[in-house]
Amino acid sequence: MKVVLVHPEIPGNTGTIGRTCVALGLELIVIHPLGFDLSEKSVRRAGLDYWKHVQLTEYESWGAFLDARSPREDQLFLFEDDGTGGSVYEPEYPPDAYLVFGKETKGLPAEVLDGRAARTFYLPMRSPHIRSLNLANAATAVIYQAMRAYLE
């Protein structure tokens, strides 16, 4: 399983998600442009001394990622606040899944979402007072749910 961050903006979120990836032995893929430099102290601070262990791969664009990885559509799981494919609790995630998250302020770009409504899932929120969750929190919740069948 792999975690894909498309155009992340906040270094602390990427660092925290990287730390989760290290904990679970997952590759972290980041798609440029980024809102920060991966060498920034804030990325390393959030990832603590674990950042050096992150299996990190970078791609210059979504198209470059698709060209290099050639993921099957059934491997792609996109996450948005208003995902129309259902709740994150519904799919069975294969071990070769790509869990794809967008930038903190705007979510996933149209080029990623186009034609993939059925592959777009949401994390349920019960309160009407919350529009969205912090990216690192949402990603961690989704990652653990997706991996539940593969964890002890």
Structure, explained:
This protein is of the alpha/beta class and 152 residues long. It has a single domain, classed as SPOUT methyltransferase, trefoil knot domain (Alpha/beta knot). It contains five helices and six strands. The protein has helices spanning 11-24, 41-47, 62-69, 110-113, 135-147, and strands at 2-6, 27-31, 55-59, 76-79, 98-101, 120-121. Strands 3-2-1-5-4-6 form a six-stranded parallel β-sheet. α1 packs parallel to α2 (41-47) and α1 packs parallel to α5. It is globular and about 35 Å long. The protein starts with a strand and ends in a 5-residue tail after the last helix.
Tag the structure with descriptive keywords.
alpha/beta; about 150 residues; globular; about 30% helix; about 15% strand; 5 helices
The global form is globular
What name goes with the CATH superfamily?
A: SPOUT methyltransferase, trefoil knot domain
- H and E order: EHEHEHEEHEH
Distance between the termini: 16 Å
The CATH architecture:
3-Layer(aba) Sandwich
